[in-house]
Amino acid sequence: MRTLLVSACLGLLAALALTSPARADDIDCVSTTFRVMGANDKVCVSGFDDEKVGGVTCYIAQARTGGMSGMVGLAEDPSRFSLSCIQTGPVTADLTKLKSREKVYSEKTSVFFKHTKVYRIVDARRRTLVYLAISDKIIDGSPFNAVASVPVTPWTGR
Fold it and tell me: Reduced to 3 states, what is the DSSP secondary structure of residue 88?
């Protein structure tokens, strides 16, 4: 019975890992505020590919809090970010088969309850993929957001 329970838990974790939003690769960070104690505040640029739509890459720039609390992972990052998405190859997804809105990226921005999330929204009428970045909190949401769009056009190669 115990083996069955462990197997079920491992299977659930594997399924969650396969359906979780993409993780971004940090490309580079630029210090914005000098701190005498601890790491500097910075803005970091990260990139991720839309896993269900081949040929689309998004870049997100986010403010990250430094200081002693930032060094140990206890700081709450500000809800400030920008987003840019581009077509990097032939778009391989059928727009009619994609969900009209789906979370494609999530990054924890505080120890408790705050994330930056990116959603893909399909604008079928205009054959465009719209990417919306938001910050959320369980108790109090945030009005900060960023938007980027990728028109789905034939790939001519670059």
Answer: coil
The residue type of 142 is: S
Q: In which band, very low, low, confident or very high, does the pLDDT at 19 lie, cut at 50, 70 and 90? A: very low
How many residues can be counted in the chain? 158
Strands (E), 38-154: 41-49, 56-64, 81-87, 101-108, 114-123, 128-137, 145-151
Phi-psi region for residue 55, left (φ > 0), alpha (ψ -120 to 50) or beta?
left
C-alpha–C-alpha distance, residues 50 and 103, integer Å:
10
Q: pTM score > 0.85 for this model?
A: no
CB 70 within 8 A of CB 38: yes
Please name the helix (run of DSSP H) or strand (run of DSSP E) that holds residue 14, with its range, or none.
helix 2-19
Is the four-CA dihedral 142, 13, 21, 125 of positive or negative sign?
negative
Q: pLDDT tens digits for 82-130? A: 899 999 999 989 999 999 999 998 876 654 566 788 999 999 999 999 9
Rounded Cα distance between 38 and 27, Å, is 22
The phi, psi pair for 15, rounded to 5°, reads -65, -40
Inter-residue contact 44 to 24 (CB < 8 Å): no
* Average confidence (pLDDT) over 127-143: 81
